[in-house]
Q: What sequence folds into this?
């Protein structure tokens, strides 16, 4: 399994870091088999696998439940798990308690927290020995305020983002995700910190990329964000396979010889 130090080495050497979300055992198995550098158990699971309109309804229990399945599917991959909405704002004390619980119960290697608010309590997590990943730019848990839109497009907001990253680094945050920001800002940010920066909708200049599993595979999603590239078509493959199954049952072609237990238990009876 790669370590936090390996990602810093990859940044130094210029080797891009690959990250993909996974939410369950099969998606984690696929990501590990393909050789992904790290897996994110994103709170996007609320939208991709639970069907909510945003990530706001996702709970700490949801994150633990899914992360444990991902760990079983990817025992040898570095896993980051999202702190969900409402679990780190009420007080620093509650944030620390919830973060410790998520880290301890999820089996993840690091926990990710959205926004600059993290600055206020991250030292407690680092004191406890928890690797913490930041997340700036578009922070989907704040969708009610921001919408799902590009962020930090003014000079002031861009400078503020870079300053927050420098604070994160000084506090001991190990990595950060930058979502939906102008590419020149992301590139500048990556040059100004030793922390590996993983981009999603942040251009080519970050130290790595992250995408959502269901977006990469075109699997049960609607119109994807602009920054998504679809590399597969699970919807097409799945609907085709399910359609063939339906036809074969209707046409009595399934089950067949190979899929039937034919040992006779009523051999001595006439006419069954
Ligand atoms: N499937 C999926 N992929 C994601 O990348 C993702 C999630 N879900 N859920 C959590 C957040 C939400 N994210 C989103 C969701 C939608 C847009 C989007 O539709 N953006 C439009 C622009 C919308 C506007 O300007 O009003 C785009 O064209 O990119 C962007 C990020 C990123 N994350
Ligand atoms: C989009 C990524 C960065 C995320 O936070 C998630 O999948 O929840
Ligand atoms: Mg998230």
A:
């Amino acid at each position: 399994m790669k370590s936090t130090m390996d990602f810093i080495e990859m940044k130094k050497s210029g080797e891009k870091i690959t990250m993909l979300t996974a939410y369950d055992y099969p998606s984690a198995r696929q990501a590990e088999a393909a050789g992904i550098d790290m897996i994110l158990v994103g709170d996007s699971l609320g939208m991709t696998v639970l069907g909510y309109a945003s990530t706001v309804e996702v709970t700490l229990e949801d994150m633990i439940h899914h992360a444990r399945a991902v760990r079983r599917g990817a025992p040898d991959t570095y896993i980051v798990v999202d702190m969900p909405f409402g679990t780190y704002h009420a007080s620093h004390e509650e944030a620390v308690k919830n973060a410790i619980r998520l880290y301890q119960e999820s089996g993840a290697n690091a926990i990710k927290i959205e926004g600059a608010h993290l600055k206020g309590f991250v030292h407690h997590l680092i004191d406890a020995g928890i690797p913490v990943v930041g997340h700036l730019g578009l922070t989907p848990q704040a969708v009610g305020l921001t919408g799902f839109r590009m962020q930090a497009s003014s000079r002031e907001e861009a400078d503020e983002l870079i300053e927050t990253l420098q604070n994160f680094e000084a506090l001991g945050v190990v990595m950060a995700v930058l979502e939906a920001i102008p590419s020149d800002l992301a590139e500048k940010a990556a040059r100004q910190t030793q922390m590996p920066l993983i981009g999603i909708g942040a251009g080519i200049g970050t130290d790595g990329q992250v995408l959502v599993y269901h977006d990469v595979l075109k699997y049960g999603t609607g119109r994807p964000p602009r920054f998504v590239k679809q590399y597969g078509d699970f919807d097409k493959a799945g609907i085709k396979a399910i359609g063939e199954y339906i036809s074969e049952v209707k046409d009595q072609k399934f089950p067949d010889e190979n899929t039937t237990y034919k040992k006779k238990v009523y051999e001595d009876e006439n006419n069954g």
